[in-house]
């Protein structure tokens, strides 16, 4: 049986994802209040025997039930617009990661450093170690420093793809001939998994993404290996 823990949002690992979860909870509370109010009104109307054959209009009631939804939409729209602007904001990135979608694997380039680029393929099941995840682990992980503003430049070489990592609050389309960008700052070290979220062909399900967030010193040591 599916537990509640398996259907909730992933834990936030970036400030942006924290804001997305706050907005989700905020909107959900408003929806719950609307559902309870409408349900109570419907049940009350169906169970009472009050009638008024001479009621033709009620301007006060009509004004109220027009005004309340408008106010409710404002409470949803304002934080939503604020969040949309935050998603588009690029705050002086220290590192730029260029991601290119192919059929069916990802290529990565560290634009701030010379000759640091590699392809990332899903690991076949027969090559997995005991601690690795089937259909999620890759042969070359993306190494990024934690607590660092990172800019992501995303495009595709052939068909539409989508570079998505739920725990980081990132989901950006990879479009051939177009360069899309986003930003993130990872709060803590660890492994973060994602997948292509666009139906891009026969092997769409086999384009995993793995980000390994490490302290800055380990990231510098990793750069020296190239």
TrEMBL record:
Database matches in PROSITE patterns: COX2 (PS00078), COX2_CUA (PS50857), COX2_TM (PS50999)
- Any one Gene Ontology biological process term? ATP synthesis coupled electron transport
Keyword Plastid attached: no
Question: What membrane topology does the annotation report for this chain?
Answer: Multi-pass membrane protein
InterPro entries assigned: CcO_II, CcO_II-like_C, CcO_II_C, Copper_CuA, Cupredoxin, Cyt_c_oxidase_su2_TM_dom, Cyt_c_oxidase_su2_TM_sf
Protein's UniProt keywords contain Chloroplast: no
The transmembrane residues are 21-43, 63-87
Annotated catalysed reactions:
4 Fe(II)-[cytochrome c] + O2 + 8 H(+)(in) = 4 Fe(III)-[cytochrome c] + 2 H2O + 4 H(+)(out)
Q: Which cofactor does it need?
A: Cu cation
What GO annotations for molecular function exist for this entry?
A: copper ion binding; cytochrome-c oxidase activity
Q: May I have one GO cellular component term?
A: mitochondrial inner membrane
Provide the protein's localization.
Answer: Mitochondrion inner membrane
Instruction: Please state the protein's primary subcellular location.
Output: mitochondrion
Q: Which residues form the Cytochrome oxidase subunit II copper A binding domain?
A: 92-225
Q: How is the cofactor bound?
A: Binds a copper A center.
Q: What range(s) does the Cytochrome oxidase subunit II transmembrane region profile domain occupy?
A: 1-91
Query: Which keywords label this protein?
Result: Copper, Electron transport, Magnesium, Membrane, Metal-binding, Mitochondrion, Mitochondrion inner membrane, Respiratory chain, Translocase, Transmembrane, Transmembrane helix, Transport
Q: Cross-referenced Pfam families, in alphabetical order? A: COX2, COX2_TM
Q: State what this protein does.
A: Component of the cytochrome c oxidase, the last enzyme in the mitochondrial electron transport chain which drives oxidative phosphorylation. The respiratory chain contains 3 multisubunit complexes succinate dehydrogenase (complex II, CII), ubiquinol-cytochrome c oxidoreductase (cytochrome b-c1 complex, complex III, CIII) and cytochrome c oxidase (complex IV, CIV), that cooperate to transfer electrons derived from NADH and succinate to molecular oxygen, creating an electrochemical gradient over the inner membrane that drives transmembrane transport and the ATP synthase.
Q: Which family does it belong to?
A: Belongs to the cytochrome c oxidase subunit 2 family.
State how it assembles. Component of the cytochrome c oxidase (complex IV, CIV), a multisubunit enzyme composed of a catalytic core of 3 subunits and several supernumerary subunits. The complex exists as a monomer or a dimer and forms supercomplexes (SCs) in the inner mitochondrial membrane with ubiquinol-cytochrome c oxidoreductase (cytochrome b-c1 complex, complex III, CIII).
Q: What is this protein called?
A: Cytochrome c oxidase subunit 2
> What gene does this protein come from?
COII
């Amino acid at each position: 049986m599916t537990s509640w823990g398996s259907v909730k949002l992933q834990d936030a690992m970036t400030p942006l994802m924290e804001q997305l979860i706050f907005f989700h909870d905020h909107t959900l509370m408003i929806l719950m209040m609307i559902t309870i109010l409408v349900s109570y009104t419907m049940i009350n109307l169906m169970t009472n025997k009050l009638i008024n054959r001479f009621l033709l209009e009620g301007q006060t009631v009509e004004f109220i039930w027009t005004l309340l939804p408008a106010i409710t939409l404002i409470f949803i729209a304002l934080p939503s617009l604020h969040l949309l602007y935050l998603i588009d904001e690029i705050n002086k990135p220290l590192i730029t990661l260029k991601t290119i979608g192919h059929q069916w694997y990802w290529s990565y380039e560290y634009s701030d450093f010379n000759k640091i680029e590699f392809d990332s393929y899903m690991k076949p099941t027969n090559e997995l170690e005991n601690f690795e995840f089937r259909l999620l682990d890759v042969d070359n992980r993306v190494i990024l420093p934690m607590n660092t503003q990172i800019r992501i430049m995303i495009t595709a070489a052939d068909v539409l793809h989508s570079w998505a990592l739920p725990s980081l609050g990132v989901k950006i389309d990879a479009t051939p001939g177009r360069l899309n960008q986003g930003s993130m700052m990872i709060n803590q070290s660890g492994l973060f998994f994602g997948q292509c979220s666009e139906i891009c062909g026969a092997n769409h399900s086999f384009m995993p993404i793995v980000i390994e967030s490490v302290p800055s010193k380990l990231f510098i040591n990793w750069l020296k290996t190239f």
